[in-house]
Amino acid sequence: MTQTLDRSTSEVTDRVESWVSAFQDALSARDVSAAVSLFADECYWRDLVSFTWNIATVEGTDEVADLLTTVLDRIDPTGFAVDGEPTSADGVDEAWLTFDTAVGRGTGHVRLKDGKAWTLLTTLDELKGHEENQRERRPFGTEHGANPDRVTWKESREAEAEELGYSRQPEVVIIGGGQGGIALAARLRQLGVPAIIVERNERPGDSWRKRYKSLALHDPVWYDHLPYIPFPDNWPVFAPKDKLGDWLEMYTRVMEINYWGSTFAESAEFDEAEGRWTVKVTRDRGDGPEEVVLRPRQLVFAMGVSGKPNKPEFPGMERFRGVIQHSSEHPGPAGYEDKKIVVIGSNNSAFDICGAAWEAGSDITMVQRSSTHIIKSDTLMELALGGLYSEEAVRNGVTTRTADLTFASLPYRIMADFQRPAYDEAKVRDKEFYDQLRAAGFDLDFGDDESGLFMKYLRRGSGYYIDVGAAQLVADGKVKLVNGQVQEFTETGVKLTDGTELEADLVVLATGYRSMITSVADIIGEDMASRVGKVWGLGSDTTKDPGPWEGEQRNMWKPTQQQNLWFHGGNLHQSRHYSLYLSLQLKARQEGIDTPVYKLAESHHAE
User: Residue ranges of region Disordered (predicted)?
Assistant: First the structure.
């Protein structure tokens, strides 16, 4: 048995190494036809910056040929080699790769079917000559010897904080100081790119602290680490909002990020001739607001996934005698114990708010206007995340970076096929739970193609709830449920189109958010926002993600139709992972490295 296993392992290694050697030979010879012949008819090459100076996926051999014909000479890829031991399962060989380009070093991952590439991932890890100052390159921290002109680390930091943005301009301004902006600023600092975060809240983490008091992360700790400083081993599996806020504040200080709190971005204009932005901000350092003009080369909006709160206007809202809040404004149920609350919506925020209100003793009703995907938290962790992001994965030697790259190696076109089995199993495992929800009248779905939560998130950023207990309250009737559309507000509550009237002292609009570009337009203007187009979505032609197919997140972490304008954000996992690739693109431009963008995406406007 051992000899058979060894022979099988050797055969897998031979197949993979043969493919890698042939691929490198073809690249070195600039023989595009030979390289393309190594790909299956159905194939996907996803590149994170290394070949394309973009985040792009090409599909099929014709697109692979076009990519190589366009970029091969200037990228000059060398040294493709297998890293570690290849594996094989279900007729697919897999291996990690390393390689160099003319300007950088990268990591790759390949899946082979019948000896030909089915999927290929290539990523840029670092720029040659501009590596991060870590490990053997870490800063010394002090100056040994005697020096009457010594400047301490603290004095240097204080001088930087006083000068940057005033007597010395940053290379990058990041508008938005949540986890996305903070992760990117940390990366840029390690690359020596001067950057300032502009954030309207006073302190890092306030965007979490100011939400309703029961809020906690729905993603587990192994999925949520920030760059460089992982959460400690005793960190809660699901971080409460205030604890996460304190972590972000600590992280900002320890990573020495230039964070301008209590600062409002008023406007931003781009001078194409000079290649610089004029960003006007109002900053309050404790002694009253001052106007400051920043002149960065690069402008990044890091405002999460969403833009302005989606606040629908219903007839009669002005005559309602109670209180109307959007979920973003809702502090929690305090003051509404033993009173009637109506929550319009049935996604994450709606369930969290309903659960907290029921615990406080409120009479709570949820209005479900469209179907919602629900997955139990423990089921999600075990079936969908456990192999990559869990304590078991850590014990198996799966680092955060390995997990991130494994996930990134799945092209979006076929990701649903990889996701669907977990949710098929969830339907069986939690059948009784789902039957109870349906019996209570809840309109349940698993996505347009039954692929579950993460595809809904990638496609539309809404339409789901990770159940941490509130769904059972609906199933049990403890949180009342009605289905329908709001017709109008009355003096005492809400009336639905079917005539149902719901009395309310408080109505919470858990109606989500609009595209990030809606908030950005207030700063850069409607014309420039239109040039950029919608932010987020894949173009999958599913609900709330209209085509055409793009195959990557629209306008996220990559060049846009507006020169020197970028978008960064997403959940904690995406903020961590993609901050590397955005920071490398920004560093390359700071250093004057030639960065011709392959397959720059067109702007898209349909919501």
Answer: 130-156
